[in-house]
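By way of example, we now present a protein record of this kind:
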Amino acid sequence: MRALLRRRSVLWPAFIAVHLALAAANLTPGVTGNSFNDVTGFYRVWVDTAVAGGGWPAIDQPWVYPIVALVPMVIPLIGGDAGYGAIWLLQVSLLNATAFGVLISRPTVPRVRAAWYWLAALLALGPVALGRLDIISVALAVLAVVALAARPWLAGVLLALGTWVKFWPAAIVLAIVVAAKERWRVLIAAVATTAAIVAIAWFALDARAVFSFVGQQSGRGLQVESPFATPLLWAAWARIPHLSVYYDTVIYTFQVSGPGAAALARIADWSMPIAVALAVLLGLRAVLARAEPRATTAWLALAITVGFCAFDKVGSPQYHAWFAVPVMLGLMVSGRRFALPAWLVLASTVLTQLIYPWFYDAMLALNPAMLAVLTARNALELAVFAWALVALWRLGSTATKGNQR
């Protein structure tokens, strides 16, 4: 059975089947509600408006995304308005196929294990896995972690590009800089790539809003999916006065309003950097204790990546697409030691798909069963983060004992 699963002739049909199923779910009207609307609505409208002379986001006006995110949004215009969604799905599927092909180009057990895990994670997240910008950065990050050992400079370039699409790959960069032997080559390549992007944006595109994405999240309220919103949703279900769910027409998300919402949003703003700092300190402790660099990098990448979501006031469903990358790295370098967090991440991803798109309306209506699902999902996120911290602590402790002998 293991030999069968290692064959690329089996892996590729599985890859195609997963992507066809997810594409069909996105393209079939009514099956997943408005889950594909970010692509066919927001992305398409942004670039259509820009082409028509309404100003380019991140160039002429502030934008929530980094400037390189424009590239995958512009390409599907070749299909026109009617074909925009189909070209988007073809684009992301081809990029995923590239990353998948590089991953299994050497069909070792660790790489094949990681390949199967990525397919499982995509299927677990459902249509949102392909229907959001995040999949572009995820594919680039997969390519980067595969390239890390042999071509660290290439890993740095890819991670920088991914970060300029969606900020989260900065978590992988930070973990590498703290713990990996290849830190300097990755960092120099990432900084050089960032400098090139900024130079092109400023001097070739006259993009004075190139850094506008940095402050765009600060004014957001407390999104319903955030772990910080969970107690308020239960309180609203219990009919505590003045608590409610509303749709923010500026940021286009459902948020919580009422007593405690603003305070919890402010706490979230501080909690994320504190959580990341704690993970980095434990990573540094492991490095100073001479723990195995690859394992330390994987655990630290998992802790920071999950921390970006678990301690955020947003918590959108597509964020769970990120989690697969550090888990894949961990499966490649630590094998069975990453088994439990890998399963926990898959479980939380399945729950995320149940929440959105399948039963999102029920959750917004404060259905107690769906609030329980949301609570379990958020608890799993925190459990994965805590598990990664414990693993980093153990790496530092074990390495210290070994060095004392």
